[in-house]
Amino acid sequence: MAKELINQGESVHTEQMQDIIGTPPVWLYRWGISLVLAIGVICVFISSTVSYPEAIQTQIKIHSVNSPYGLSIKDSATLIKILVQNNSSIKKDDYLAVFETSTGKKSIKSPINGKLIYAGVIHENEQLHPNQNVFFIVGENRGFYGEMIVRQNDIYKVKSGQTVLVKLRNSVDDQRTLDGVIRYVTNDQLKTGEYVAEVDFYNHNNESGYLLLRNGMLADAEIITAKATLFHRLIKSLTIGLK
Q1: R_g over Cα of the chain
Q2: Whose CB among 11, 32, 77, 145 lies 3.0–4.6 Å from 101's, allowing a Cys bridge?
Q3: Is the model's pLDDT at 96 over the cut of 90?
Q4: From the centroid of its chain, how far is CA 85?
Q5: Considering only CA atoms, which of 194, 195, 160, 152 is closest in space to residue 180?
Q6: What is the DSSP letter of 68?
Q7: Chain-wide mean pLDDT for the chain?
Q8: How far apart are CA 32 and CA 179, in angstroms?
């Protein structure tokens, strides 16, 4: 008898628990659904405002529009006197050095305004070979452009007018970037099957990065092929996945 009472008590207790579990409070439905909807709206809003453009990673080589002007002596000569220090600013027709050749002493003038750079290590009383570059002059009005390699698989995405973000290597703070735009893309392939795109730089966008450019410098480039948000990228990925 006692056993039957215990079993009946357990049965009643179990039925009460099932009623509680099986019938959640109304407020839980109301606030739970509202919370889920609110989180969904916030996620959509954030993903719609966060920029996440489609981009292609590649490398770029920097070229100078005005290559340094080389100065040399046609004949064998002895460097008698150096009149200008390395990396000095010079004006057109400034005297730079005095040489002694088989026909006598000669001086060399600067043909343009710019900055004088020694062509290696040079000393007074040094013997110079014919046509040996002694100085280089970097003109005042310098410009740069980039030569960028585009892989064959990416060529259909790359077009003239697209933005290129350039990150300079080995810069002082490792954060120097430069903005550019694709001027044109070649139609002919290289022997490697790749294409070449020319990039113009705009120094007014980032003067600090532009001043660090040097002829022959290598940098990392990011071609922005399409402007998009995080939401658009997610939708595109889902669409591709369903297909």
Answers
A1: 36
A2: 77
A3: yes
A4: 35
A5: 160
A6: P
A7: 78
A8: 47
Bridge partners (DSSP) of residue 199 are 146, 182
Torsion angle defined by CA atoms of residues 7, 12, 17 and 19, in that order, rounded to the nearest 10 degrees? 140
* Structure token digits, residue 155: 């060529």
Could you tell me the two tokens for 157?
């995405």
Specify the 3-state DSSP secondary structure of 19.
Answer: helix
With a cut of 90, say whether residue 19 has pLDDT above it: no
Q: CA geometry: angle at 167 spanning 59 and 155, to 5°?
A: 35
- CA distance linking residue 114 with residue 79, whole number of Å: 22
Four-CA torsion 178, 190, 154, 163, nearest 10 degrees: 20
Contact 190, 196 (CB under 8 A): yes
Per-residue confidence band for 20, with pLDDT thresholds at 50, 70 and 90: low
Measured between alpha carbons, how far is 111 from 108 in angstroms, rounded to an integer?
Answer: 9
Q: What is the pLDDT of residue 2?
A: 46
Kindly write down the DSSP assignment for every residue of 64-95, as one continuous string: ESSPPEEEEESS-EEEEEE-S-TT-EE-TT-E
Element (H, E) at 48: helix 26-49
CB 147 within 8 A of CB 63: yes
**Location of structure tokens 């120094």:** 203
Q: Is the CB of residue 177 less than 8 Å from the CB of residue 201?
A: no
What is the distance between the alpha carbons of residues 116 and 69, in angstroms, rounded to a whole number?
Answer: 9
| Rounded distance between C-alpha atoms, residue 243 and residue 239, angstroms | 6
Answer for the pair 177, 190: CB distance below 8 angstroms, yes or no: no
Given a contact cutoff of 8 angstroms between Cβ atoms, the answer to whether 223 and 164 are in contact is yes
